[in-house]
Amino acid sequence: VIDRDEIKQNLIDQLTGAVKWTQCVQSMIADGANKFIEAGPGKVLQGLILKIDKSVQTEGVS
Questions:
Q1: pTM to 2 decimals?
Q2: What is the DSSP string of 19-39?
Q3: Alpha carbon of 41 to those of 6, 16, 29, 30, 37: distances in Å?
Q4: Helix, strand, or coil (residue 3)
């Protein structure tokens, strides 16, 4: 990042861009990930991961 305008545009892109959650999880599984740990209360991300691939393990820690 070189200048203020570039920083501003990068932040806008990050906040308004699409989240490629499914593709990211599938890529991690393809690379050998078989256990996902969700930090914090709740199980939302665990549920989303299991919808993508029921064969992986998920765990939550708070």
A1: 0.74
A2: P-HHHHHHHHHHTT--EEEEE
A3: 35, 26, 24, 27, 12
A4: coil
Measured over the CA atoms of residue 6, residue 11, residue 15 and residue 18, the dihedral's sign is: positive
Q: Tens digit of pLDDT for each residue in 4-41?
A: 999 999 999 999 999 999 999 999 999 999 999 999 99
DSSP assignment letter at 18: P
CB within 8 A of 22, min separation 6: which ones? 52
Q: CA-CA distance, 35 to 59, in Å (whole number)?
A: 8
Helix or strand or coil: residue 49?
helix
